[in-house]
Amino acid sequence: MTKIHEPLFHLAKNSNVNPRRKWALRGIVFVISFFVCAIVSVGLTGKGMDYFFKYFFEGLFGSERNAWNLFHETAILLLIALAVTPCFKMKFWNIGGEGQVLMGCLGCAVAINFMGGKVSDAATIIVSIILAIAFSTVWAVIPALFKAKWNTNETLLTLMMNYIAVCLVNFFIKSVATSGTGILVFSNGVVGSIFGNEFVLKIIVVAVLTTLMAIYLKFSKHGYELTVVGESPNTAKYVGIKTKAVIIRTLVLCGVLCGIAGFLLISATNHSINDTSVGGRGFVGVLISWLGQFNPIFMAIMSFLVVFIERGSNALANGGISLGESYPSIMTGIFFFFIIAVEFFVNYKFVFREDLQAKIDLCTAKIKGVFSKKKQVEEIENSNKASDSVSEEIVEEAVEESAVTVEENEEIPSTEDVEEKEGK
Amino acid sequence: MKKKVIAIVLAIALIAAITVGLVACNKKANNGPQEVELPGYNVVEPDYSDLQFPADFKVGLITLHDKNSTYDANFINALQSVKAQFGLSDSQVIVRSGIDEAEACYNTALELADAGCKVVFADSFGHEPFMIRAAQARPNVQFCHATGTQAHVVNLPNYANAFASIYEGRYLAGVAAGLKLQAMGKTNAPKIGYIGAFTYAEVMSGYTSFYLGVKSIVPSVTMEVTFTGSWYDETAENNAAKNLINRGCVLISQHADSWGAPNACEEAGVPNVSYNGSTFESCPDTFIVSSRIDWAPYYKYVIAKVLRGEAVAKDWNGTIANGGVKLTNLGAAAADGTVAKLVEVRNQLALGTLKVFNCANFTVNNEHLTSYLADINGDFVGETNVIDTVGSVTFFNESDLARRSAPYFDAEIDGITLLDRNYGD
Questions:
Q1: Cα pseudo-dihedral B380, B385, B386, B390, rounded to 10
Q2: Do B66 and A277 touch (CB under 8 A)?
Q3: Does B98 contact chain A (CB < 8 Å)?
Q4: pLDDT digit string (tens) for A198-235?
Q5: Which fold is adopted by the domain B58-165+295-318?
């Protein structure tokens, strides 16, 4: 007899899971990751959980400014994630968000540098918006043209263009700044506070853009077309969608949003430019876009969680005990590890070898039995009413189920065991 | 099975070897070279005994890197010592490390102010524009920036700069190096080497004063300088030191923050003068002495001023006399009699009878300086004459408080050869 070797378990696509359950699972995993962060921090500081929570939440909501800044950072990150989302939905792997936003920053900086203080602030601001959008759009459309015309690999091109953008920014700073610190600071022609609040403008802008983007992707013809181009280029061709035009149009949209992000960063936030003005948000934005399933609302939640962990752990790292400057990265790493890992369990399921599955069913039955008994006791205590029948039914069903599978494999002498333990 | 056993045995052997190796490294040689104590200068500290600290009085410090950088550690440790001296609690002293020279600095400064800090310090040159913005946004909080140049330009009531006459410390370190050259018998036109980060006034002032210190003992000495283009690049500093040693330099000093140069010197057995802290622990055979800035006197000065409701001076300068400029203990490699000589020269510097940049002691293009335009307002173009004459002594008046505390000596004097230049691009 030849023995067929069957693996203990294999993986299968888990396609028909209730989306609400998926999000519940993600929520639970976020809470777990947060507690792992807490445990690691407790281990490192040698202080209790109260220390962790005190500094973590003080950093987030300790002052009015901190709380505003939390939502402000979320907004900026979300905007950049929004910019790259249509590209990804179209399966155009644009990982050049960082460079595209940085070019927007550069366009904005060019305008402020040459106009700031010389003409009215309003004129400077208008020109800087236009230049920021123009620079970003050019940077986003170049790879789109290459893709549409010659079908070049957009991943490599967009990635490399990030580094070119960094060089261009440095070149600009070096050629106009007299000091050698690699940063250019502006005092005129920038957007200041609105209603005495420096954050609210950006939060409103991003909220509006998020809504518009959600509508665009879900309800507009453009949104539908880019999804079709992404899902099946042949279908797109067949139904008469101009694929090349869609690619370029989508990247123009991406460029415009990146330009707005660059403008908001330079003119309304930093009032200065250096080669790290975007600070890696272009790459985190890609992650956010994916983790949020290209849904602007979920992306907003994801951005908030990332900023939540980052700012909280930053405050903690600088609390009473200094944990070093790399500490926030470790915490964000833990967070992403969990959040990305859960995607695997959401999308795939384990299928066990039959005999193993039988054992597992048995255990589940036992656990169910214990729970239903507990329930039983509680219910008796509560209402003095015997509701055995219902729970017994469940147990019997479970046991029957396992018995069916067990029959096939006689090695497992379990039906009696179960019955014994069930007290029959 | 056999393979498994062999693998396990090998693994155990490896672990044992590593353990033995690590333990052996940790063993401290008690009979090795010993440090030589240099008595501290008798600093007369202002009277701070009357200071009353309200429970909500807080001090904040923003640093570019964390404690792993010698430069930032120097700031953090000084603040901890002030905290201990003034009896401040953990919650009254807030240190925020790893703050970039960008928007993060402005945000952090405001967060510290909002957290109740009455004084906020920042330690890196590039923090300055953001500290100024923060000072404008929070007029009730005192912002102090070390190494900055703009306080007297922007002229805000709550923004101040500070630096130290570290060139005096480097001059002293140079004297110790000169004595070492003498003890080594290298008095006939010896060549020494110096590794700098950038070709800025801060570094140029430093190596020139070091050279003049050596020259005061060994008049025929010459020096070669090379720049790495980074404040912290262990490999580049290590290679630069090796290069200088190969070029025939018999003594090395550096102005950069890593252990690259001291380690290269220890390997090659070449004496080394360090900066920002003693490297004696790792380099016991070659470490001579190190100069450093002690920021504690400045912290105390500002805290006292703010508590008393008095104005903080736009520029503050640490000196030997006020305790801002210090030398570490001497390494075993220092020559005999160094302590006595250092104490003598140090007293002269503190009293002002000895000027480091006495124009009689150095020449530029074979001429003694009679006037020199230095950049005081920070636009990198010289505009202010900084050659002063007091009594019969004409000297380059470095770090003069009437001008600014940050160094501005950037003349290239005879006897020093710049092998390369690096302005940071």
A1: 180
A2: no
A3: yes
A4: 899 999 999 999 999 999 999 999 999 999 999 998 99
A5: Rossmann fold (3.40.50)
